[in-house]
User: Fold this.
Amino acid sequence: MAEKMKSGAVGEELEVARGIAEDLRARGLFGDAAPGYYIRTFGCQQNEADSEQLAGIAEAMGFVPAPGPEGAKLILVNTCAIREHAEKKALSVIGTYKHVKDADPGVIIGVGGCMAAEAHRAETLKRSYPYVDFVFEPSSAFSLPSLVRDAMGGTRRFLSAGANGIAEGLPKVREKAYSAWLSVMYGCNNFCSYCIVPYVRGRERSRRPEDVVEEAKRLVDGGAKNITLLGQNVNSYGKDGDFGCGIAELMRRICRIDGDFELRFMTSHPKDASDELIDVIAEEKKVVKHFHLPVQSGSDRILAMMNRHYDRERYLSVVEKLRARVPDVTLTSDIIVGFPGEEEKDFLDTLDLMRLARFDMIFSFIYSPRVGTPAAKMEPQIPRDVSAERMERLLALGTALSEERNSRFVGRTLRVLADGVSRTDPGMMTGRGAPARPVHFPGGEELTGKFVNVDITGSGAFWIAGELSEKE
Ligand code: 5AD
Ligand code: SF4
Assistant:
């Protein structure tokens, strides 16, 4: 069972955080004079959730939010390692912080996240980025206070060996009170042959259901209208524990919390997407009728090389079950093109599966070799121009499917959570609901964070639009 991080370790760090806050206070650095922190986040929802925790710890240390890196005294970069592009981007952004440090040597710069957990990248940061004060992998984020304290004392530190526990009880600063990420587990045991995640985020560790439900209660009490449960593979939730509660039961317990809120979850693995989970989506009113179920490829040969442990028939049987139980379900997926050895016929199998599954939306990626993963050494790697050409065809089909799927909402009334006014058109709002795409409707800022009914009048591949409904 996953080690729950000794509460002592977290307690000690929070003690260090209080010490830093007191020290700043003693130097008159509080209120308007308090030093600013700035966090730049790359990557997935898990990283966004982790950044909320980093912000919480930064504020416990007495720092206040800064609008940008210039003027901030603590700069944190939360990196992603899923594809090379994400790493290059993070390294280039870190590069731009050199001039911030040159202008003010008192600025503390830390790099965390998945890229920081890769030994070769940590080494690069150590050697080629001397103005970076510390590097910490994702499960060491709770050590931020002592890293900052040591940086203030002039010591550079590199925490690349995973602590691999769960740090409960850390403060969080959430960007929006009405919408929240809730991590239920960390890490992944699947070792898909292309994926870096198991190497950088360690083995699966599930939080205790009591801790998750307690946090969900606090979120709802604090005004959360939308809670998204996060885990690299949420279907495995609880399998590493002895608490007899899987993801389906966990979701049912959260749905019992009083209050008007909706519940989402991601990401699921097709090999263990269970009937119980499908039942929960079908039966629980608070659960949004949306299933994100990455297929990655429609070719059995490629799926086997990806080490996915299912074939297209098994995937399509899950989809069939899902559609039988939840006919109106929104189904989204991730697809990789140009995996090593992918031939035209494998790619055509992927397009065929997309048509059969009728995805509402796909997230598509050109395969990117990751150092240390088995697929990086597989032959032949696919030339960029071949992958790019396949990607174009994949996107064209994805767009056509989205357009067709979105049109089913026209003429219906959808309940959506208003998520702010449009930046380009201040009279228009964006809402989120069961559709994969945002729902646009005329409205004002006062609706943000509220559920509204929208009569849907039109749709395209990337949008759905309507008018506020008179109906209750
Ligand atoms: N190259 C391209 N895409 C990848 N993904 C994960 N690893 C890689 C890689 N090496 C994609 C998968 C996964 C999503 C989060 O990112 O589709 O589901
Ligand atoms: Fe990566 Fe596969 Fe784990 Fe998802 S299930 S995080 S793709 S190894």
